[in-house]
Every structure is written in C-alpha cells, then in structure tokens.
C-alpha cells in the first residue's frame, strides 16, 4: 500500500507494532537513514528474500528507498511472502523532510 509522507508518518507514529525498513544500498544508507530503520538491500536478490523471510510477519512494515520505486517492489515481494502490512513511502528519501540520522 502506497502512503504519502504525511499518512506514512501519522500511521507509523500511531503503530505500536511498527518496523521501519530501508531497502537502499549500504552506500545510500551511509548518507543518512530515518531513525530506527533496519536496512535490507533489495539489490541482494535472493539474499534480500532470505532476510525478509526471517522477519516477523505479525509486524507492520514501513518501507522506503530513495524515490519510492524499490520500496514499492519490496512491498510487493513482502505481500507475496505472506506479509499483510507493508506500507510504501511515496517519494522515498528524495521527498522526505523528516528526521535523518547516521546509520
């Protein structure tokens, strides 16, 4: 499900079962991440799928990348793997005006 930054933040802040997932490369993450995000690089292919499958499917995942394209794909993959709640941040880090911290 695609959410605008406003909706993504509002839903995230009200969610006690939330996990923030950054699917960018390590180099991109080195430029800064959304606080408390975990990083699993979608470009790892099968490695990405293996790491995603180890996550708790009962949690709600707030997924982002640089522009929103890779995170949309990550949400699709997660849905196929049985994750019911994966939310894509439209516009990704390019449009993000919230807090950014060093990884």
From TrEMBL:
Alphabetical list of CDD domains matching this protein: RHOD
Gene3D superfamilies, per database record: Rhodanese-like domain (3.40.250.10)
SMART domains: RHOD
InterPro entries: GlpE_sulfurtransferase, Rhodanese-like_dom, Rhodanese-like_dom_sf
Domain of life: Bacteria
Residue ranges of domain Rhodanese in the record: 14-102
Matching Pfam families: Rhodanese (PF00581)
Record protein name field: Rhodanese-like domain-containing protein
Organism for this UniProt entry: Flavobacterium plantiphilum
UniProt lineage: Bacteria, Pseudomonadati, Bacteroidota, Flavobacteriia, Flavobacteriales
């Amino acid at each position: 499900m695609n959410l605008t930054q406003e909706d993504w933040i509002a839903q995230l802040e009200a969610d006690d079962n939330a996990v923030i997932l950054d699917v960018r490369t390590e180099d991109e993450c080195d430029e800064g991440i959304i606080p408390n995000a975990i990083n699993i690089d979608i470009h790892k292919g099968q490695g990405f799928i293996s790491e995603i499958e180890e996550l708790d499917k009962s949690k709600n995942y707030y997924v982002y990348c640089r522009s929103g394209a890779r995170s949309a794909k990550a949400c699709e993959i997660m849905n196929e793997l049985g994750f019911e709640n994966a939310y894509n941040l439209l516009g990704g880090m390019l449009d993000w005006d919230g807090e950014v911290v060093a990884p």
